[in-house]
Amino acid sequence: MDVRVAQAALAPIDLAEVPPIDLGTIRIVPVTHEVHFGDISERIQAQPMRVLIALAQNPGTLVTREALVALCWGGRILGDDVINRAILILRGVAKRSGAFGIQTIPRAGYRLVLQTAAQPRHTDRRRRISIVAGAAVLAAFGAAILIPRQAQQTAIVRVLPIESHLQGPDRTRLPGKVRASLIHALMDSGFAVDAVGRARPPSANVDFEITGQLSEGDGRIHASIQMEDARRGMLILSREFDRPVARSGAIAEEIAANIAANVAGIASPMSLSRRQPVNSVTLTNLLNLEYLDGTGTDPLRAYDIARRTAPQAPHSGLAQIALAISAGLALPELPERDRPRALAEGRAAAASAQRLAPDFGDNAVAWCLLHPRAEFGACESHLRSALKADPDAPTVPLALSVLLQETGQYDDALRMAEIASAGDPFNPMKLDFRIQALEIAGDSSEAERVAVRGQRWWPDHQQFTWNRVMGMAARGDFAALERLDRITPVELIPYDRAIMQAVLAAARNHDVSRMKSACLQPRLKGSTRQVCMAALLKSGDVDSAFAIADGLYPPTWDPQRGETERLWLQRPETFLLTFLSSPAAARMRKDPRFKKLAGQSGLIAYWRVQRPDFCKTEDCGPLLAG
Question: Domain limits of the chain?
């Protein structure tokens, strides 16, 4: 019998509530994300585990893709690749266990079939956990110091009980809440967790050990979390958290998300350092520069560390990719005279990394960082080839999502954003671009849900609001912008609030003169200017919209490649072009001036090969004609 239940009738699977399931010769333990067979235990990520539960609860029965979306993703719209990846992971478990198989029913769904006899297995017992989480990156196109997924084992993290000096009944529960949140966040990110107490020694296979302390003073809760490389006895991460006592209830989630994202970023370079060993000083430097790159706090310092470290480790893929990425991220911060040298160093390091790890998909991200952004087609080609060769490369879907969004392929951009964040749920940058893609698609309720959850995890992160503003402006939804402005705390405002409020009021009252006066003021933030362009276009003042666009989108592309690189080195960092393909810019695209604007940004050359979404509803012939 087929499972063809309406999406609304299916409650999402809560792994904490599902009891263990015996499936032939294997035992599935949902709460710990574990599958046991023989003397082997494998831990898999939350989403594939939910898919396995949905299939295992209905063995021999067709479970439609729609039912899987409802049961495992809460009915959210997502691309086929997300489901396909979960099924691929489960087929790996099925092959290793020999207990079941998963059949694809074309254009319908999947069926789990029990095997009558388990096949002999030759599994390395040291690989207790075989499903690897995509490693987190803390900056778009940055901090991707990773290794190929097929060569890396899932890190095992021991979380010790949190020490506490807190007093009072409410406070004494907080250490346990912090530890439980840490365990769940790490498991949801795909890590194996050893949660034994202090009295029992950890497994010999533990890679990292997390400890923490809580204290109170001056009306604030203070938390200190450390992570040690258990195999080297080396402190590799230390983070401090400080929140008012009144907000102490939220600090557990904040700590858990921050540490889970940081552990994901550190685990992969640590694993690579074991395959291509470097001394402890070099490793400390590399981890330090990854943090600086990832948080964007000091890209020049990160680049300086990378320049000093890479020559000391010429055979380390980690050191070479670190220099390549750090050089790319530092370019906008360097004086113009120093940029050609940094570019040459970065490209040489990227070539070395390619030789040392030719199957490392995320090398494509370094390529894009070290070439003019206007070379959209070449960057996309590198990213898609990398994704094909290394489907689990964690930063490639994010980089591809950003590129597709900027070039007006919004549907594919949302699909790639969903893939990027599916296995890396706490990464703030992946949440950022998913939020903007959802807003552009008109799914503002889902974007708000993601942003609210992300703000709990990263309470000081303004970019969630910025991405909502960008998406709302792209679709020209001024009522939504006014509502967002009303509910957003002042410390999270990423735009010129007084100007924005004046523009939104003028748009509501059809006061073009007031709108123009506010929008044409100098030195406005890019997000404010994007809202201004949308409002001016809707009001019919196309000339003022172009005046803003001319300043926001300077020439970055030329038919001569050498000139394109010269323009890029003059101005490596420019505002994203996303708005030019948006619904709000439709009136601008009808103006003859638009062809020059889009042409000097590299979009026309790209669109002639890969048409943007707006060409489905607009006549693009005149725009793209030679």
Answer: 7-114, 149-389, 408-624
Dihedral sign for Cα 347, 349, 355, 360, please: negative
Name the pairing type of β-strands 208-217 and 192-194.
unpaired
Distances (CA, A) of 523 to 49, 192, 303, 551: 50, 49, 29, 10
Prediction pTM value:
0.73
- Secondary element (H or E) of residue 171: helix 169-172
Helix or strand run (H / E) with residue 463: helix 463-475
CA 330 to chain centre: 21
Which among 410, 445, 432 is positioned nearest to 527, based on CA atoms? 432
User: Comparing C-alpha atoms, which of 491, 596, 484, 611 is closest to residue 549?
Assistant: 596
Phi and psi at 442, nearest 5°, equal 90, 5
Q: Tell me how many helices (H) and strands (E) the chain has.
A: 27, 13
* Region of residue 298 (phi > 0: left; psi between -120 and 50: alpha; otherwise: beta): beta
In degrees, to the nearest 5, what angle opens at C-alpha 388 toward C-alphas 384 and 393?
A: 85
Residues in contact with 169: Cβ distance below 8 Å, sequence separation at least 6, in sequence order:
none
- State the pairing for strand pair 220-229/234-244: antiparallel
User: Phi, psi (5° rounding) for residue 227?
Assistant: -130, 135
| Nearest one of 185, 212, 610, 255 to 406, comparing CA atoms | 610
Spell out a b/e string for 197-226, using b for 16 or more CB atoms within 10 Å of the CB, else e: eeeeeeeebbbbbbbbebebeeeebbbbbe
> Is residue 520 within 8 Å of residue 536, measured between CB atoms?
no
- Average pLDDT, 10 consecutive residues per value, the chain (626 residues): 46 84 86 79 81 90 88 72 76 83 80 63 26 25 32 70 81 87 86 69 73 88 87 77 83 90 64 55 64 64 86 85 90 93 96 85 90 96 89 83 96 90 82 94 93 92 94 96 95 93 95 95 93 96 96 95 95 93 96 96 96 95 90
Local structure of 3: helix, strand or coil: strand
Question: What token pair was written down for 245?
Answer: 């006592």
**CATH code 1.10.645.10 for 7-114:** no
> What's residue 294's pLDDT?
55
- Backbone φ and ψ of 497, nearest 5°: -65, -45
Q: Which of 523, 522, 503, 527 is nearest to 513 (CA)?
A: 503
Contact between 426 and 189 under an 8 Å Cβ cutoff? The reply is yes
List of long-range contacts for 567-573, beta carbons under 8 Å, 24+ apart: 567/372, 567/374, 568/372, 568/373, 568/374, 569/331, 569/336, 569/339, 569/340, 569/343, 570/336, 572/331, 572/332, 572/339, 573/331, 573/332
